[in-house]
Every structure is written in structure tokens, then in C-alpha cells.
């Protein structure tokens, strides 16, 4: 398995994301080629994929780096590993590569959220040094 930062969107990537995203959230529609081209071209946003020996996409992760007055910060979003590849270190490899890039960019923190019922994901993140933070998370959704 290898992890790579996506530099160019393709139909193969569209199909992989369309296969993976429903395993993360059934309420979200997968992006098309235009949206993935935009995502890959967005400064500060990095899409990583993990590939098997045969180049099949096993999982994905998005890292967003941004500057605020207190420094460079990061968020990890949309981490999903194909059900058939879970338990093989794919999520760990994706997260480690994202953290490597964030550290190289000078990020002082990288945050993420995961639901409490995702026990394996919670163990993974804690094992990589993430700690729970006592905070309120608010979400605004346009009507």
C-alpha cells in the first residue's frame, strides 16, 4: 500500500470517491469531476488516497491548512477506508501522511472530529497523539 497526495482529478478518482463516500455518510452526494478538479486545485487543501499494489483506491483523507492570527492550523476531513481494507493500517497511513505535511507546513494544531461510535477510528487517532478537547462544536447549515 502507498499513500499519495492527489495532484490531478480523474474519472477513476470520481469513481473511487463515489464508492468510498457512502461508507462515511449516506447523507452526502459524492462530488463529480468538476468538484474534484476544484478541490485538488484549492490552495491549502490536500486530498490523499491510499492505493493497493494494483492501484485500487483503498481510502481517502482531506487535509485543510489555513492561517489565522495565531498561526497555521489544520483540519482533517472525510477520512474513509473501504470496508474491505479496514484493519490493515490504511487509516493510520493516510493520517500519518497528512500530519507529516501539516508539520512541514508549520501547523501548530491539526483537528478532526469523529463520532463516538466509530471505536476503531477513535483508538487510531488517540494512538497517533490526538487528544479529546473539551469544547462545544457548533454547526451552521444554510436553509
Describe this structure in words.
The longest helix is centred in the last third of the chain and has 15 residues. This protein is α+β, with helices and mostly antiparallel strands and 143 residues long. The protein is built from 4 helices and 5 strands. The N and C termini lie far apart (42 Å). It has a 5-stranded mixed beta sheet, sandwiched between helices. Strand 3 and strand 4 form a beta hairpin.
Main traits of this protein?
143 residues; alpha+beta; Aminopeptidase; 5-stranded mixed beta sheet; 5 strands
In spatial order, strands of the major sheet run 1-2-3-4-5
How many beta-strand elements? 5
Q: Supply the helix-strand structural class.
A: alpha+beta
Q: Segments where pLDDT lies below 50 for 5+ residues?
A: none
Globular, elongated, flat, extended or rod-shaped: what is the shape? globular
The span between the termini is 42 Å
Helix content: 25-40%
What can be said about this structure in brief?
This protein has helices spanning 11-24, 33-41, 90-104, 119-127, and strands spanning 2-5, 45-51, 57-68, 71-81, 107-111. With 143 residues, it is an alpha+beta fold.
Topology:
Elements: E1 2-5, H1 11-24, H2 33-41, E2 45-51, E3 57-68, E4 71-81, H3 90-104, E5 107-111, H4 119-127
